[in-house]
Design brief:
- This protein has about 725 residues and is an alpha/beta fold.
- The chain is about 50% helix and about 15% strand.
- The chain has 24 helices and 22 strands.
- It is globular and about 110 Å long.
- The two termini are about 45 Å apart.
- About 40% of the residues are buried.
- The protein binds flavin-adenine dinucleotide.
- Flavin-adenine dinucleotide binds near residues 243, 275, 279, 503 and 546.
Length: about 725
């Protein structure tokens, strides 16, 4: 590719060189054109098609090579062919020429420049993706922007060629018409400057903003259509009514009240939602208890002997519920009331785009933020309705440890709970339908987790298709197709963790025409707005991440966009979303892994560091795991980091900050880390990268320099 680029560049430079060295450029002056106008005209009268053809080819060639003279050629075209034909010929010739110049610029310069300035171009390309056609239209319409410059600059962006062609042809028409028309009086023209008067330029500028005005009108019409049939109240009880008091709804309410908006929060069940009551908090408390049992069991490797741990499951659950109770005040009605939020504890249903029925009351709000979360999805296996099923919702009311637990689904929740219950003493079988645990992670990560679980006694069945649930007397069995065989796995409880489905029902959304995606989450734009511009959503209901910190990140956007969106609104940026699976060793990732980078066609380089190299990990007996960092080839810019290690979630933040603020591995390497910590491994990984990219030539020169200083070389 580089060779082809060099050849094309050489040809291009030669062609431009020949144009100037041969003196051809001297032909392209107003005086020459005026002097030879009658000769051109005579030739055209004799051979109209040939002259038109040659004119077309010369126009395309000059525009493609970005040679000066397009304006003069346009005048000549007007003089020779008249307004109608002149406009037709020149419109196509100039657009084809411009597109060729655009493609040449793209071929020669885009890749190297994008590589050199990746951050800047990412921003430009996002803008181009959104409004590229509008920008181009404006630039083309106002003929103060040089024609050739627009072609070259647009070639560096990711605008589609068809868009470039279509918009260019349309937007250049008025300007071309003016010049072609002026060409009719070529003989009388004294200078090019007189053709475009300030008034004409102002009219073009007005035409240029027309697309924006048109877009606003379209939005206004769409808005009116969306709200058709509903009567907007003349005034409102609240600036925002938030539905759902989980992570997303609480953060939305907090931000709304912090900026002094009048906010109501409606929660039908428990404040704190899933995270506090049935998700993150109880699961992490259970994981901690299970880890205590594991530590006792594995203590002899440090020379500390203890007997087999005695697990009092009721007390374990006591610890779990105590954790919830201790955190509850942070999410309580009292706290939020104190912040100025009016909290309603009831079911909410939307009766219009501005009205919410809460029990017997109807609240009105300028904006509504939906944050109703998600619930565990239970697969429709034959016989499942009669089986003792556990989900993340009812799991926490168990009082006895299940002896035989089958966990269906090997995602984050399934893996975390499998390991914990196995550590607490259950016999756990983990059944996963695909060929890998933690399917979104790289294969080696899934394999690592599988090894860790298997070593702790979990029976892992991958590529196992659950077929049905059977009961024989008191015995419950899951029937599974595994490696072509039909197997049965007996269980006391079947813990289902196959994904979560958004809570969209019972909210009155159908009547408002608010639709869902294939994943079952709400259909939203990048600003988290539904088709009704005053109704927003965040959290698990919005997807695509079903994580507490993703919910909080979205909640900020929903609140700020709702309250201030008319002035400035923000699209949600998910590029630096960290995620942790709390198995031991933990799996923590931010940004791209190899699987995603490959799927997206992003070029990357991998740097690895084994935890067995870390002094602290050795001292801790926690040498399992690794760090894998993806960088832009030849650069230290981080595309993503995966850590499989003890407490990985605690030190993933270093990579998240680095990525978010554009700090490369060189900067991590240049930062002092306390010794000995596990987090030091981040710096060590940067060291591995640096070692692979050391300036060999300079080092060779240095070696010679030192030899010379020692007097060993002349
Ligand atoms: C076992 C488990 C472990 C998890 N671990 C983690 C973890 O370690 N880290 C992490 O980041 N995430 C974790 N999650 C995910 C996390 O819990 C969710 O992403 C987060 O709780 C989503 O918050 P939310 O506000 O969108 O929804 P929710 O917390 O579900 O809140 C929605 C609220 O809306 C209420 N509601 C619904 N409909 C109505 C209505 N019509 N009227 C009034 N109220 C209504 C519900 O009662 C609920 O309280 C875990 C989840 C589970 C199940």
């Amino acid at each position: 590719m580089t060779r082809q680029r060099l050849i094309i560049a050489a040809l291009l430079i030669t062609a431009i060189g020949v144009f100037f060295v041969s003196g051809a450029h001297q032909w392209f002056t107003l005086e020459t054109f005026k002097a030879y106008q009658s000769d051109f005209q005579a030739a055209f009268n004799q051979h109209p098609w040939q002259v038109a053809g040659i004119f077309f080819a010369v126009y395309v060639g000059m525009s493609a090579l970005s040679l000066p003279g397009a304006t003069l050629l346009t005048l000549l075209g007007g003089a020779l062919f008249g307004l109608g034909w002149g406009l037709l010929i020149i419109s196509f010739a100039s657009t084809i020429g411009a597109t060729l110049a655009f493609l040449l610029s793209r071929f020669l310069f885009r890749q190297p420049i994008e590589k050199r300035f990746p951050n800047q171009f990412e921003v430009v390309n996002r803008g181009v993706e959104r409004d590229g056609a509008f920008y181009l239209f404006m630039l083309r319409l106002v003929p103060v922007f040089p024609f050739f410059m627009i072609n070259l600059v647009m070639g560096l962006t990711r605008i589609k060629t068809v868009t470039f062609y279509g918009v260019s042809q349309l937007a250049m028409l008025p300007g071309t018409a003016v010049f072609v028309n002026a060409g009719g009086q070529l003989g009388e023209l004294e200078s090019l400057g007189g053709i475009v008067s300030p008034t004409l330029l102002a009219s073009f500028a007005l035409l240029a903003v027309f697309p924006w005005i048109a877009r606003r009108i379209v939005l206004l019409v769409q808005r009116r259509k969306a709200y058709q049939g509903f009567i907007r109240p003349t005034h409102f009880d609240y600036d925002i009514v938030v539905i759902g008091g989980g992570s997303a709804g609480l953060v939305t309410s907090y931000i709304g009240s912090a900026v002094k908006a009048k906010v109501a929060l409606v929660e039908k069940h428990k404040m704190g939602g899933d995270c506090l009551n049935t998700g993150c908090v109880p699961s992490k408390a259970l994981i901690r208890a299970a880890r205590a049992a594991h530590e006792i069991r594995t203590a002899p490797r440090f020379g500390v002997t203890a007997s087999e741990p005695q697990v009092d499951f009721a007390k374990v659950m006591g610890h779990v519920h105590q954790a919830i109770t201790d955190i509850e005040p942070h999410d309580s009605v009292e706290r939020y009331s104190g912040l100025g939020v009016t909290v309603y504890q009831d079911h909410a249903t939307l009766t219009s785009p501005w009205e919410i029925k809460v029990g017997e009351k109807t609240l009105t709000a300028r904006h509504i933020v939906l944050a109703t979360g998600a619930r565990p999805r239970v697969p429709s296996l034959p016989g499942i309705e009669h089986a003792p099923i556990l989900t993340s919702e009812n799991l926490w009311s168990l009082t006895e440890l299940p002896k035989r637990l089958v966990v269906l689904g090997g995602g984050s929740i399934g893996c975390e709970l499998s390991q914990s219950f196995a550590r607490l003493g259950s016999h756990v079988t983990l059944v996963e339908g695909t060929a890998q645990l933690l399917g979104r992670e790289d294969t080696e990560v899934g394999e690592h987790v599988e090894r860790a679980l298997s070593q702790e006694g979990v029976t892992v069945m991958k590529s196992a298709n659950a077929l049905e649930v059977c009961q024989h007397g008191q015995e419950h069995q899951l029937v599974v197709e595994h490696n072509g065989e039909r197997l049965t796995v007996e269980f006391d409880y079947l813990l289902v963790s196959v994904g979560r489905q958004a809570n969209v029902e019972g909210l009155g959304l159908e009547a408002l025409g608010i639709t869902t995606t294939q994943a079952g989450t709400l259909e939203l734009n990048k600003r988290l707005q539904t088709r009704l511009p005053n109704i927003w959503a965040c959290g698990d209901l919005a997807g695509p991440f079903q994580l507490t910190h993703a919910a909080a990140h979205q909640a900020w956007h929903a609140a700020v966009n709702a309250l201030f969106g008319e002035l400035k609104s923000f699209a949600v940026d998910y590029r630096f979303m960290p995620a942790v699976t709390y198995v031991q060793p933990e799996v923590a990732r931010v940004g791209l892994n190899e699987k995603e980078a490959t799927a997206k066609g992003v070029a990357f380089e991998v740097t690895r560091y084994a935890m067995s190299e870390s002094d602290r990990a050795i001292a801790e007996g926690a040498t399992e795991g690794f760090i894998k960092v993806l960088t832009v080839p030849g650069k230290d810019k981080i595309l993503g980091a995966t850590i499989v290690a003890e407490n990985a979630g605690e030190w993933l933040g270093e990579f998240t900050i680095a990525m978010k603020h554009g700090l490369g591995l060189n900067k991590l390497l240049g930062t002092i880390h306390p010794y000995p910590t596990l987090g030091e491994a981040a710096k060590a990984t940067a060291g591995v990268w640096k070692n692979a990219h050391k300036p060999e030539r300079i080092l060779r020169l240095l070696a010679r320099y030192f030899r010379w200083r020692r007097g060993n070389e002349k």
